[in-house]
UniProtKB/TrEMBL annotation:
Coiled coil: none annotated. It is an enzyme of class 2 (transferase). This is Polyamine aminopropyltransferase. Keywords: Cytoplasm, Polyamine biosynthesis, Spermidine biosynthesis, Transferase. Its EC number is 2.5.1.16. GO terms for biological process: spermidine biosynthetic process. It catalyses: S-adenosyl 3-(methylsulfanyl)propylamine + putrescine = S-methyl-5'-thioadenosine + spermidine + H(+). It comes from Paenibacillus hemerocallicola. Spermidine binds at residues 62, 86, 155-158.
Length: 275
C-alpha cells in the first residue's frame, strides 16, 4: 500500500508526493501542522495543507529571502524575521558577520518546537546567542518597535489564517516605521501563475510607502508553480546598484554574487504584472 500527500494548490491543480511516514500532526492554536517524511523531498513541513519547506529544496527560499537584502544594506546590525519559525531564514542571516542581533517573531510556538525536533538542519541556529526568539504576533511587534531594525524579513505562509494581516498595507506601513532611516524590508510574495492579483496588489501598496521597490524571483520546485517572487522595499539602497564584485563569498547552494542582480531580471509576463 502506498501513501501520498497532495497539496491542492488551486481548485483544479495540485502537487503530490509519496509519503514514508507522518512524524507529527497537530491542530495548534493557529493552524493545522504536520511534518511528513517523503521519498522525493525528505522531511516536509505542512501548515494548513500547504507545503512550507522541505529538507531537499529549502535552501533556495531561505537564501533568497535573506541574502539579497543583507548584501544590499551596507551595515545590517539588527535584523527582524517575522514568521519563519522553522529557522531557515535565521540560519542564513547569521552567515553575515555584521549582524549583531537577529530577532525571530513567530506567532505559533509549535512550529518552532517541532522544527527543532524534526528539522534540525533548518532550525539548528535558533539557539544561537545572536538570536532572540519571541513567540508573538509579528504584526503587533512591528507596530510596537519604531525605528528599530536595519532589515526586516517577512517569512510568512500564504495570505490565509494567521498570515492574512502580513499582506496588508497597514503592515507594510508599520514595517516602514519599524525600520531605521536607511532600512530595507523583503517579503515573499507568492507566484505569478496563480496569485497574479496578490503580486500586483502588494507591489502597488509597497510602492506607495517605499521610494525603492524591486521584485525578484527564484525557482522552488515544491511551491505552487515552482516560480516564486519576493518583493523588496528600501528607503535608501537599491539592490541593482550593488557592486557584485564586492559581495563576499559565503556558504550557499543557490545564491551567488552574480545571481544578486540576475534574480531581478523578470519574465515579461511578471514585469507586466507590476508596471
Amino acid at each position: 500500500m502506498e501513501l501520498w500527500y497532495t497539496e491542492k494548490q488551486t481548485e483544479e491543480f495540485g502537487i503530490t508526493a509519496k509519503i514514508k511516514e507522518t512524524l507529527v500532526r497537530e491542530q495548534t492554536e493557529f493552524q493545522d501542522l504536520a511534518i511528513i517524511d517523503t521519498t522525493e523531498w525528505g522531511r516536509m513541513l505542512v501548515l494548513d495543507g500547504m507545503v512550507m519547506t522541505t529538507v531537499r529544496d529549502e535552501f533556495v527560499y531561505h537564501e533568497m529571502v535573506a541574502h539579497p537584502a543583507l548584501f544590499t544594506h551596507p551595515n545590517p546590525k539588527h535584523v527582524l524575521v517575522v514568521g519563519g519559525g522553522d529557522g531557515g531564514v535565521i540560519r542564513e542571516v547569521l552567515k553575515h558577520p555584521k549582524v549583531e542581533k537577529a530577532v525571530l517573531v513567530e506567532i505559533d510556538g509549535k512550529v518552532i518546537e517541532y522544527s527543532k525536533k524534526y528539522l534540525p538542519e533548518i532550525a539548528g541556529e535558533l539557539d544561537n546567542p545572536r538570536v532572540q526568539v519571541i513567540v508573538n504576533d509579528g504584526y503587533m511587534h512591528i507596530h510596537e518597535h519604531k525605528n528599530t531594525y536595519d532589515v526586516i524579513m517577512v517569512d510568512s505562509t500564504e495570505p490565509v489564517g494567521p498570515a492574512v494581516e502580513l499582506f496588508s498595507r497597514g503592515f507594510y506601513q508599520g514595517i516602514y516605521e519599524a525600520l531605521k532611516e536607511d532600512g530595507i524590508f523583503v517579503a515573499q510574495t507568492d507566484n505569478p501563475w496563480f496569485k497574479a492579483d496578490l503580486i500586483r496588489t502588494v507591489n502597488r501598496d509597497v510602492r506607495e510607502i517605499f521610494p525603492i521597490v524591486r521584485v525578484y524571483g527564484a525557482n522552488i520546485p515544491t511551491y505552487p508553480s515552482g516560480l516564486w517572487t519576493f518583493t523588496l522595499g528600501s528607503k535608501t539602497y537599491d539592490p541593482l546598484q550593488v557592486d557584485e564584485t564586492g559581495i563576499p563569498e559565503i556558504e550557499t547552494k543557490y545564491y551567488t554574487p552574480r545571481l544578486h542582480k540576475a534574480a531581478f531580471a523578470l519574465p515579461k509576463f511578471v514585469e507586466d504584472l507590476i508596471k
